[in-house]
Amino acid sequence: MALLQIAEPGQSAAPHQHKLAVGIDLGTTNSLVATVKSGEAVTLPDADGQHILPSVVRYLDCGRQEVGSAAREKASFDPYNTIVSVKRLMGRGVEDVRALGAEAPYRFVAGDNSMPFISTVAGQKSPVQVSADILSVLTQRAEDSLGGEIVGAVITVPAYFDEAQRQATKDAATLANIKVLRLLNEPTAAAVAYGLDESAEGVIAVYDLGGGTFDISILRLNKGVFEVLATGGDSALGGDDFDLALATWIAEEQGLEVDTLDTGLARYLTEKAREVKEGLTDADSVNAQLDYADLKGSVAVSRAQFDALIEKLVARTLRACKRTLKDSGINADEVKDVVMVGGSTRVPLVRERVSGFFSRELHIDIDPDRVVAVGAAIQADVLAGNKPDSDMLLLDVIPLSLGLEMMGGLVEKVVHRNTAIPVGRAQEFTTYQDGQTAMAIHVLQGERELVEDCRSLARFVLRGIPPMAAGAAKIRVTFQVDADGLLNVAAKELSTGVESSIQVKPSYGLSDGEIAQMLQDSYSLAEGDLNRRRLREQQVEADRLLVALEQAIEADGDQLLTQDEREMLLGEMSQLIALRNGDDADAIEKGIVVLSNESDFFASRRMDHGIQKALQGHTIDEIEEKK
Ligand code: ADP
Ligand code: MG
């Protein structure tokens, strides 16, 4: 399937008519917009010639807002109305946001859908609204500089973004009145920018170290098709940490008590540190002048000193690379291309260590701040129909497994974590009880074995199943994850064709930190989970037997059982019920065998009785004839 086919009908361009489409890198720290002009992808500057738009929005009491550098300059002066790093809040719930604590010092109010709103002088703003305000500025910039209306945009998101975060990003675009041609994973966009899609095959690592986040993605290119094998990183590691390490060092050099700095001075020192850090990228040493309140003087920092300060932080990124490679089942020496993304990959020590880790030359020719937007623009150009012969298909992965709730509160995984998308998977299920006419479908996301440990995404009910014996109905449940990572679940009863489906629009609220936690739990608790799973399975088995026996006694007990026999069975049943309510899976298993054996006579008596009933009123001859 070509990407081209994803474009909506009527969107393919008439010959010679170039459609204006843009790529947008909606970053945590900085955002950019790019487009393909005369065959070349370029980022677009604002009226002052600035390409990078700081992802900061400040709300004013007149109902207007400032976006970009103007807003960033006011962040410390007007912190409650100036929203920074809003990307960290996208698709998260109130609880997640509270957990962010100091990172987001705003006044939050809970809204519908447990989506958090930020209280500002201009009213309550959701993260989706804030992102929409950033997107509007970028598309307005593009329309001004291209002199026409934009038909659509490709917006990039981190590869690990879950359903809720992707949906929130799409919602932001809708709010900004932008048609989303596609959400594209940031690492995939970077690989496209380097034209790596044009080589035949190979494994690509994308190392993205920005202001506050580190992402590592392992992609595989095969016959022009990208597949994301695995993603990893650290959502709280980036250039800001370099700044902090250097600021702390400068403070100590100046004989300041680091823990007791007031916020203004701390902010001044971090800002200074950032200047020094960026200076050290091109120079071996930098002399910084300090001038803030009582603090006057100068400090000289050599690159070697700076390297020593960030050594441990860089090593942390390499450990994440190692883990992610392991996750993808790839050895470092199998990686053919390493793409560097994010402003912090300009730091020489970072380049040196990453190059050493992969034993490779790195792709650093395209400005690491712009490379994602450039790749998105190339994609947008294809999707808008400007390059009709292109058939590039980009595959991404789902970050956590998707599954269904089974009897006993167990989760059956239908699509496993790290499966490339788009993907369709079907699984057949059956009914649990005789005459069951409806089936509740509960969709979950997570790696653990039990429903209570996974995240609930959606519930719906398939009705109109014809009454049949337990296990006779065949229900096929299909999971379809589209190219944007959005999930559609459908259930169909095969004998009647009764169908029901749901587009999963998850409630906002799963953070990448939680994803990491859920993954970690699934590893460290695996054994405990297996025991609990076995217990639940045995409990389900026990219930099945108990219900069947109860129904049988109800139906035929009066006729086929003596009083003693009935009491014996009821006694055995209550023993199994006691075991079933305990937590010893082995004991329940044994109890099931005992009760089955003890009730065998009743089952065979019922069978005989059933045959007799069927034979009543017929002569032997008739039966012989029927054979
Ligand atoms: P994000 O992806 O988080 O939006 P960017 O990719 O724009 O962020 O990276 C911003 C980070 O890059 C900041 O920490 C900034 O200090 C750092 N940075 C930018 N230029 C340089 C440079 N020349 N040397 C070192 N670090 C730099
Ligand atoms: Mg970035």
UniProtKB/TrEMBL annotation:
InterPro entries: ATPase_NBD, Heat_shock_70_CS, HscA_NBD, HSP70_C_sf, HSP70_peptide-bd_sf, Hsp_70_fam, ISC_FeS_clus_asmbl_HscA
A biological process term (GO) from this entry: iron-sulfur cluster assembly
Protein name (Swiss-Prot/TrEMBL): Chaperone protein HscA homolog
GO MF assignments: ATP binding; ATP hydrolysis activity; ATP-dependent protein folding chaperone; unfolded protein binding
PROSITE patterns (UniProt xref): HSP70_1 (PS00297), HSP70_2 (PS00329), HSP70_3 (PS01036)
Organism: Pontibacterium sinense
Biological role stated in the UniProt entry: Chaperone involved in the maturation of iron-sulfur cluster-containing proteins. Has a low intrinsic ATPase activity which is markedly stimulated by HscB.
Assigned protein family: Belongs to the heat shock protein 70 family.
Family matches, as Pfam families: HSP70
Gene3D superfamilies: 1.20.1270.10, 3.30.420.40, Actin, Chain A, domain 4 (3.90.640.10), Substrate Binding Domain Of DNAk, Chain A, domain 1 (2.60.34.10)
Gene coding for it: hscA
NCBIfam families (alphabetical): HscA, PRK05183.1
Domain of life: Bacteria
Keywords: ATP-binding, Chaperone, Nucleotide-binding
